[in-house]
Design a protein that fits this description.
The protein contains 18 helices and 20 strands. α1 links the parallel β1 (about 5-10) and β2. α1 packs parallel to α16 (about 435-455). The chain has 2 domains: about 5-40 and about 100-145 and about 380-530, 3-Layer(bba) Sandwich (FAD/NAD(P)-binding domain); about 180-375, no CATH class. Helix content is about 30%, strand content about 15%. It is an alpha/beta fold. Bound molecules: NADP nicotinamide-adenine-dinucleotide phosphate. NADP nicotinamide-adenine-dinucleotide phosphate (NAP) binds next to α6. NADP nicotinamide-adenine-dinucleotide phosphate (NAP) binds near residues 149 and 377.
């Protein structure tokens, strides 16, 4: 048992935890990162499933803070695969000598605030204890994997993996009978990759998603040199766009152009790499029902063109939500997979899964034997990683209780009654192209800690009125978005988690520039919304 004391404990060695460590060190603050895994990388450490890769352009995803890092790192593809991203994050950890302040195999199970000592007491799964003035959560919005609530999951005798807890050893699909449950972004990437080698692949789909082509391509040395030369412009653009992607909505409304021009624009977007069709479409596709129907009809037509069997195509077209109202999975020949003789689609709204058996999966219609079952069933998003830690603030108040019915935060960084707990990428922060948001979030938190050190302040808490105002603002800013009327992790729904069947507002859905402007204003005003001691 250790009882180690430091200035700041950071939970998680993903993109945000690593950068926070770097910035705190620079400030002369002693910090220690507690990481559950055996290596750095967070999302990219855990999600090593076949086909995992960026949906953001690689060169918009990397850290922007170090000119030297930008100078020396070469991306090999416009949308890099997970192994390359993990290599990149490891390179960052080595370059800045971050590992000496990271404890691996350190899963935090509890964090309790001690008001008398003005410290957080943190306990790990193995019983070791740490203590620090600041508790910084860098635990990610999509890091608590959820298995489906289906009877018999533990009885299956073959191999079974969740995409978010993929093994480090390669899984061989050649000649095997493979099942994938789930058709979100992880399922889509997995399916299109596994279909290449599996003897037979059966996809169990509950609700289809609207997917669009990724159009990935390699980057050669000459192109990388050009990208490098344009980094200032790339990051400036990401700073200005709604969600920190290169893409930004077209100022025109869908019906401000004639049918031919509309179709041509949709075609252009469908043929372009990345999230343009989602983030760079007509300005009203995510708010206006008729506009949304137009783009949905366009993408449905594409699915029908790409899938040979019209009955299968029909099953792959979402009926209960419009295009872009849930996270759009980007794909590479995903729809064509369903034309392969070794792939079958089972619509489990027609024939529900009854149970997992020792041999495979039993639906209401048949028994399917499998060698491997892949659960691409997603995450207890945004608040799930917090719920898994016993976090208690003043007077032993539990964060989980405090957030029943939806999170309440100030700027997504602080929760009243949980002094000195600072959240990176917590609920109510701008997410989008996440490393861009991470860098801002970390810099803001670092600025706050600097402010306190310069004034010998040892406690910071959010004022109740500031929390109420920000929470109301987050709710108001999401009004009118079609995505907030749809069940998905965006709205806090997870059918596999008790108590997560009611929609909540857990996500800030305003623009990233507006979020940053508000945070800058708070800092420039001397943090009047926070109470210090
Ligand atoms: P997800 O989008 O939540 O998808 C989970 C899938 O599993 C859904 O199709 C869901 O069906 C299905 N499912 C869940 N429980 C089930 C059950 N009990 N029985 C049958 N089906 C069940 O999760 P995800 O695909 O892991 O993606 C989560 C997020 O991670 C993405 O939206 C994205 O933000 C991020 N991500 C990013 C990348 C990337 O950038 N390249 C890649 C992967 C993931 P329903 O739709 O009916 O609920």
């Amino acid at each position: 048992m250790t009882d180690a004391t430091t200035d700041a404990l950071i939970i998680g060695a993903g993109m945000s935890g690593l950068y926070q460590l770097y910035r705190l060190r620079e400030l002369g603050v002693r910090a220690l990162v507690l990481e559950a895994g055996t290596g750095v990388g967070g999302t990219w450490y855990w999600n090593r499933y076949p086909g995992a890769r960026f949906d953001s352009e690689s060169y918009t995803y990397g850290y922007s803070f170090s000119p030297e890092l930008l100078e020396e790192w070469n991306w090999s593809e416009h949308f890099a695969g997970q192994p390359e991203t993990l290599r990149y994050i490891n390179h960052v950890a080595d370059k800045f000598d971050l590992r000496r302040d990271i404890r691996f195999r350190s899963r935090v199970t509890a964090a309790h605030y001690d008001a008398a000592a003005r410290c957080w007491n943190v306990t790990l799964q193995d019983g070791s204890r740490y203590r620090a003035r600041f508790l910084i959560t860098a635990i990610g919005p999509l890091s608590a994997p959820t298995m489906p609530r289906i009877a018999g999951v533990e009885t299956f005798r073959g191999e079974a993996w969740h995409t978010g807890q993929w093994p480090h050893e390669p899984v061989d699909f050649a000649g095997k009978r493979v099942a994938v449950i789930g058709t979100g972004a992880s399922g889509v990437q997995t399916i299109q990759e596994v279909a290449k080698t599996a003897g037979h692949l059966t996809v169990f789909q509950r609700r289809p998603n609207w997917c669009a082509p990724l159009h990935n391509s390699p980057i050669d040395a000459a192109e990388m040199a050009k990208i490098r030369a344009s980094y200032p412009e790339i990051f400036r653009r990401c700073d200005e766009t709604f969600a920190c992607f290169l893409h930004t909505p077209d100022p025109r409304g869908t019906f401000e152009v004639d049918a031919a021009e509309r179709e041509a624009f949709f075609e252009k977007l469908y043929a372009s790499p990345g999230f343009g069709i989602w983030q760079g479409n007509f300005r009203d596709i995510l708010t206006d029902r008729t506009a949304n129907e137009a783009i949905s009809a366009f993408v449905a037509k594409k699915i029908r063109q790409r899938v040979k069997d019209p009955a299968v195509a029909d099953k792959l077209i979402p009926k209960d939500h419009g295009f872009g109202t849930r996270r759009v999975p980007l794909e590479t020949r995903y729809y064509e997979v369903y034309n392969q003789p070794n792939v079958a689609l089972v619509d489990i709204t027609e024939t529900p899964i009854e149970r997992i058996t020792a041999e495979g999966i039993r639906t209401s219609a048949a028994d399917y034997p499998f060698d491997i079952i892949i659960y691409a069933t997603g995450f207890d998003a945004i608040t799930g990683s917090f719920d898994r830690i016993d976090i208690r603030g003043l007077d032993g108040q539990r964060l989980k209780d405090r957030w029943k019915g939806g999170p309440q935060t100030f700027l997504g960084v602080q929760v009243e009654g949980f002094p000195n707990m600072l959240m990176l990428m917590g609920p109510h922060t701008a997410l989008g192209n996440i490393p861009r948001s991470i860098e801002y979030n970390v810099e803001w938190v670092t600025g706050l800690i600097r402010h306190m050190r310069e004034r010998d302040l040892t406690v910071v808490d959010a004022r109740p009125e500031a929390v109420a105002a920000w929470t109301d603002h987050v709710k108001a800013v999401g009004a009118g978005l079609l995505s907030n009327e749809v069940n998905s992790w965006f709205t806090g729904i997870n059918s596999n988690v008790e108590g997560k069947q009611t929609r909540i507002v857990a996500r800030y859905s305003g623009s990233a520039p507006a979020y940053r402007a508000r945070c800058d204003e708070v800092a420039a005003g001397g943090y009047r919304e926070l109470a210090f001691a």
